[in-house]
């Protein structure tokens, strides 16, 4: 893998074995052996190659990773390939979402959950206050709430589609609601 990648880079950048040999102080034969994957450089020779090839940071990292992979024991390489394959499968399952998209979704879910928790706390307080009121005051408050809801629905132009539910609530308030608290 390292050798093939080295050969591809040298072809792409039009670098001759002789030139790399002179720049990196490595024999031409050894560089040829590296390209043919007959040898794998030690760390000091790898560093010399990386320093003397005109590579982008990403290309250097890729070449280094290929060297690291080739120099690792076969069991490590197998585990690496297996994890890489699993990672690709997970990306497919998630619909190829980028990490930031997934992270943003998780953050949004957390915010919604926190907001719901706060609303639940408020509703407990409202319920306690509602219990303390007289029956007459409860009916008055409910009628005002229903009027406000109706105004909001009309303002948003969605009254007609919610009219049935609103009318049922009005009838229930008029008939008197039996509370079990």
Summary, kept brief:
By secondary structure, the chain is mostly helical.
Rounded to the nearest angstrom, the distance between the terminal CA atoms is 74 Å
Mean pLDDT comes to 83
Poorly predicted regions are none
- The CATH class of the largest domain is identified as Mainly Alpha
The major beta sheet can be summarized as:
none
CATH architecture label of the largest domain = Orthogonal Bundle
Total individual domains = 2
**CATH superfamily membership of the largest domain:** lambda repressor-like DNA-binding domains
Total number of beta strands: 0
Q: Which structural class is indicated by helix and strand composition?
A: mainly alpha
Shape: rod-shaped
Proportion in β-strands: under 5%
Report the total helices: 9
* CATH topology assignment of the largest domain: 434 Repressor (Amino-terminal Domain)
Radius of gyration: 35 Å
- How would you spell out the order of helices and strands? HHHHHHHHH
